[in-house]
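User: My collaborator sent over this chain with a note saying "see what the structure looks like." That's all I know about it. Can you take a look?
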Amino acid sequence: MAAPIAASLTANLAVPPVADLPSLGTGGERHRILHVFRAPVGGLFRHVVDLTRLQAAAGHAVGLVCDASTGGERAERALADLAPHLALGVVRVPMRRNPHPRDLQAMKAVRERALAVGANVLHGHGAKGGVFARLSPLGAAGHGVIRAYTPHGGSYNYRPGTALHRLYMAAERLMARSTDLFLFESEYVASRHNAYAGGPQRLARIVHNGIAEAEFAPVGTVPDPFDLVYVGELREAKGLPVLLRALARLHSEGRNLRLLMVGSGPDTESLTAMAGALGLAQAIAFEPPQAIRPVLGRGRIMVVPSLAESLPYVVLEAAAAAQPLVATNVGGIPEIFGSLSRDLVPPGDCSALSRAIARILDETPETREGRARALSASLRTRFSMDRMAADVLCGYAAALRARAPRPFAIPASA
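Assistant: Without extra context I'll predict from the sequence alone. Here is the result:
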């Protein structure tokens, strides 16, 4: 399932006027789009927020269906900010992270909302959103509706080789039959789908997450910054035990580095205890989730030690802002780094992580900042938010054309 992470939302990012958007390739059609997903937090939510704003700016009617129990006040504020762009409104219903009998109630709610607003695009995000958007029965009214699916890693990354992963992938194979359009956010997830789920060839696009022009502005660095910054969910799969051991290793070498960890998650207590056991209690500051850009300026290096990822916004945002980065070679992160991916660290390797951190800290500021600026510049064309929006709408148009009934042709006389 899509993992909630502490990433900035785009409530304050400027959306270009419709006239400034690139050609959308929709033939002038205006869609009624319902985005379906579970948690209104993290990178998945940021993706939905960005698409919603841009699709609404292009003249489409957009609505959301998501979980009622996650996100807290932060999600409430984000949804309130988004409300002017939601012609089809927001419906929040209970959604469990893992499979549960109450999923049938959520699926019913998606069906009722889709029929009530006359949606012609049901776009599911993440594993749970993908289930509800693709399997909600619409009856005869669903003949002209396309079902689009954007995986965000989730079930594709969940313990490959285990019985549960095989079960998830078997479910993906079955649901592929009800999928008109796959919109993979990275080549990595597309390859995971082909390797583990497979099945008949379906209409598919690789649509990278997009970054707004405002996010390329430098953030600056505060006086007396932390040496390292981590922003994300506090859980083991993010590689945080590896980061703590790497930090302890650096301390043993006489480098008394300080780490700022911003986020929340199920392993907060165990990570705090581990920091104490490693003698790092005074070297680490834990803070709750908050917008990423101000946090970037509070550290010299951003560290992303993940064991598994899809195409993380936290890396895109830090790279766009020209923040020096140490990241692992997992998921779609190499797609972000491009020609600089040789600098990525093997996941789960404490020694390699500590060496990479030390190497960047020992570089001259000119070398360190020059590499960060080069990566930022390479993102401008490859990860444009406008391009993301246009590619998604082009995918909808192609799926709708494929769905349209073909005109009956009278065979020529022999």
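A starting point for your reply to your collaborator: The chain has two domains: 30-210+384-403, 214-382.
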